[in-house]
Amino acid sequence: MNETSNIVPLRQPDEIDDPLTNVLRAGARQLLAHAVEAEVETFLATVQDLKLADGRARVVRHGYGPARTIQTGVGPVEVARAKIRDRGASSEGERIRFSSAILPLWARRTRSLDALLPVLYLRGISTGDFQEALTALLGKDAPNLSPAVVSRLTAEWQGEYERWQRRDLSARRYVYVWADGVFLQARMEDHGECMLVLIGATPEGKKELIGFQVGVRESAQSWRELLIDVKQRGLQITPEIAVGDGALGFWKALDEVFPGTRHQRCWVHKTVNVLDKVPLSVQATMKKDLREIYWAPSRASAEAAIDVFAEKYRAKYGRAVECLAKDRDALLAFYDFPAEHWDHLRTTNPIESVFATVRHRTVRTKGALSPTTAKLMVFKLVIAASKTWRRLKGTNQLPKVIAGVRFNDGIEVIHVPANHAA
After folding, report:
1. Among 203, 202, 183, which Cα is nearest to 193's?
2. The whole model's pTM is what?
3. InterPro entries per the record (predicted)?
4. Residues 182 and 199 sit within 8 Å (Cβ to Cβ)
């Protein structure tokens, strides 16, 4: 006989009310166990020829270590580490040991979770709230991701950043570079510090982060220190062209450190500067006319469009025309390079898009975070994002340099840069 009851069972903190999540965790547990088993079998196969005096195998399986919980993107997954035994070692130094690459001895979470922490910070969650935020993703209490762990991770990131800053660049060659200063408004101090960012494109069309350090955006000295540092670490071949905002002290420093590099002013920044000098009622029309210039199919067409712009607006808006005309050559430099690359060279978009999240970081974040920690979190985010950066179009047209001489389509060219414009 069934009895009715007014007691309603409540969901317990560690219960999963999503069947799909339950299936995913069960599947992850099985896959991890199978992967660890396969790793052990592969290791044993490499030492199967080692025998004892009586012919028995020297290295054999030796059960499992204590089960432990690994934090993953689908929540906690329990797994036991397989163990092996060396029965023939005469001393500790001769003992053959097995170390799992999939499940390191002290691992408590996947590396992807460490990479998630900078993203959480940049989305407005402070270190003290990480555990609370991750509980919804990883299950009850989200162990091994406490503020103390975040502090230890910061120390590890500092080591990674310092090693990255010392890396050898003698084998690197960058045909194009983009430069910009990125302000971390919520976390940097009030005296104008920002992150100086330098991104380059290799002759194969791959974009890479070249420089990343704290400085003053408009300061030529800060940019000079960054450029001299990368040059001293081996970056000796002068880039073909550099793209950046006209207000940067970067240009003065660039002419001192890499005097052969051409200047390309960012059209997005220049458009904003020009429109700031006219009334709001004129800006929509003027913006369309500016677009006609940098979207022109050739340099000659762009030059003609600038002349039309000047004739149209000089009488009433002379300051706007002067702002555009003074950087005329630097605004049209991209036309002297492959047409496939014009989209890449018109603006500092390779930097703008990467740091869009950083620029919109607000002071709504609870809790304090030092500028150093903010820098390291952004650094980790950029390094992770760099693996997915879009390659340049038309990479077969990129100039190649051998012993200081450029070759285009097999023909030696002594005077550079060559005009590739379509």
Report:
1. 183
2. 0.65
3. Transposase_mutator
4. no
